[in-house]
Amino acid sequence: MSSARLSQQTIVFGIFIVLFLVFSLLLPGFFSASNIVALLQNVAILGILGLGMAIVVIGRGIDISMIAALAVPPGLVLQMVNDGYPVSVSVAAALALVIVFGLVNGWLIAYAEVPSLFTTLASGLFLAGLGQVAFFKLDLVPWPPQLDAIAGFGRGSIVGIPMPVVMFGLTILVCAFLLRYTRFGTYLYATGDNPLGARTIGIPTRPLILRQYVFAALIAAFAGMVMAASIGTMQTRIYNSTMIYDVILVVVLGGIGLSGGRGGVLNAVTGTLLIGTLLNGMTILDMSYSAQNLIKGVILLIAILIDSVLNPRNEETAQQGDI
Amino acid sequence: MSTPILELRKATKKYAGVPAIEDVDFTLMKGEVHALVGENGAGKSTLTKVMAGVVNLTSGQMLVDGREAMPRTPNEARDLGVAMVFQENSLVPTMTVAQNLFLGQEKFFNRLRGIYIAAQQFLQSLNFDVAPTATVSLLGAAKKQMVEIARAVLHNAKVIIFDEPTASLTPEEKKYFFDLVRDLKKRGVSVIFISHALEEALLIADRITVLRDGKHVVTDDASKFDRARIVQAMVGRDLSQTLYGQRKTTIRPAGKRVLSVQNLRMASMVKNNSLSVFAGQITGVFGLVGAGRTETFKVVSGVIKRDFFHGGEVLLHDKPVRYRVPAPAVRDGIAYITEDRKVEGFFETMSIARNIYIGQLAKLRRKRGLISGKAASAVGALWTKALNIRAISPDVKAVELSGGNQQKMVIAKSLVQEPELLIFDEPTRGVDVGAIAEIHRLINDLADQGKAVVVISSYLPEIMSLSDRILVSRQGKVVEEYSALEATEEKIMYAAIH
User: Fold this and answer.
1) Which stretches make up the ABC transporter domain (chain B) (predicted)?
2) What CATH fold (topology level) applies to the domain A2-311?
3) B324 at interface of A, judged by CB pairs closer than 8 A
4) For A65, B129, B274, B337, which has the most beta carbons within 10 A of its beta carbon?
5) C-beta separation of A72 from A131 below 8 A
């Protein structure tokens, strides 16, 4: 089993290298410093989201509402500051919104036992709708100059590395630490591997699930702030885009089994790099948005197929003990 | 000698290079009842799954009626006349009996009335007392099995394979099942059945084949076997005497009362159940499937979902407790060691050490936020040695261990929590004979150390050899209590049935 998973990650990394080399040789302008930086910058937000999704998926869940959590709370900060509220009040309001949102998701999934897919599908729709109806006056909320003091984590660069990429790196470190060295991480793997087993041995699984959705919402909102700072606006209709598919693609392609308990930060990073290269290459090739979606759809289907072959969670695994 | 209806020659099936069965020769005659016995992991299931087309051979030959035929799917096997009745039901629970019978054979226009009439006639011809319009999920285990058998006969099966057919049946149902098998035999149908109940094999089979470690050991007429000879062939050594043969001559006295359950009620499974458990002795809880034993102790340990609890009182050290989730029960020193380790026992992707370490983390009073790899390996090494858990390497994943070693790991995961009350639910289910002896010794040691130990088992010899005190459960409550000195198998069985 372990060798199979290792090889999936290695394969994906290999594909990334090959794709990168092919694009470098064949696509004019791909292998230039500015394009590589742009590639990383484009992929950074996706990578941060992918890490949040990875945590949820390892705990045997899924969070479709991440894009809503990315758009609405940061949009709220921008809108409130634009409307003349103090920065502190705006940030506090958005933070409260994110946490309440994560808690509601988590409560529905952990305590009311609604499947995570349906819960987050509905809650994401709700949050996006709430933003459109109650918060935003326009689809594009501009970054107000009053917020420039905190624009540093999305704008500019450190030793030539754009800040979004630095933030991606920071998130990698935080998530890796959380998964590898904390009790939360160990419990998360245990719960994803065998929820009933984790419960029986005395792990408080429901609070754990609750926390993982709060964490995912926080990460999504963080990604949203980085995005808004770097672009200078918040496109609140991003919820209607296909971005959530890219996030799932990152996780599954990287080799984090949708059946839970498997994979880690490295898998998410590998998946991010591959998707980033692919998207960038397709953009340089000037492929239409529809054609790109088609290709991404095919890759996602293949990735899910490989995932269910490599990480079967069914009678086959269950019966390995009694041959 | 006539041609066998089914024959396997040099059948070998390897999983990732490890043979589950190796060079097995097997013949089945027409109208024969053939019992397949062996320890867990001996290859019985694999062998029958090969015949039923569920599993494909790595090498070897299969002949049906003397002609080479190798079914690659259950459908192909069915066309060859081989049908398998699985341990787990393969019926569609929300459909009616008739719909299940004709499943997969429906005509384009599937007229319900038509299939009800056909099913009615067919069931009557078999003399089966099942209503074709009944929904399968509402039937008892025996009736479900009848439907499965009827379906096999309907598909003109020449060979019907049963995997542990009597495990979930009551004694009356078992008797009925045996009559059915005899009836099938009269119709010229050959029957293969896998069984752990050796008495059944001796009683009903014409021939018995014993497998061990994936290899064929012996095939002979049932009349030439007795229990001791089968067990010896199964384990390759004479273990039957040391394992279950001895009766207790002394019993441990009851210590302080640790647990008291009063008038517990839960859904339809537990009805006004009352019992006590004492420190320093083993309380055996015997009952047939459906007696509410597991459910009672799952309520005690908080494992069961809260919604099913209807009333009654649980006292731990004379203080009333009501656990809604297992975590606080674990903190208060209760360990429930599950009967179904695959579903709620262990973490399959993790190493032995990590599994045990998680047990420790879950119990730690001063919660630590950070984990320690060093502590994990240390606690893993300690318990691997203490319980003699055998694995190729310490890093091996839990899913790759044998049943016995998995069970020991699951027990270690709870022992590391230093519980005062240990509830073992079917502690040796799916465990090889060697490990059974070790687990029994461990359970005895725990009682000697003064722990309160509960052993729930459906296997009478296990209850008799372990318990100091025996509670007999029937239809949701404890109906009888014996000291191990006064208990006999007859008394216990009588209380459990009537």
Assistant:
1) 6-238, 251-497
2) ABC transporter involved in vitamin B12 uptake, BtuC (1.10.3470)
3) no
4) A65
5) yes
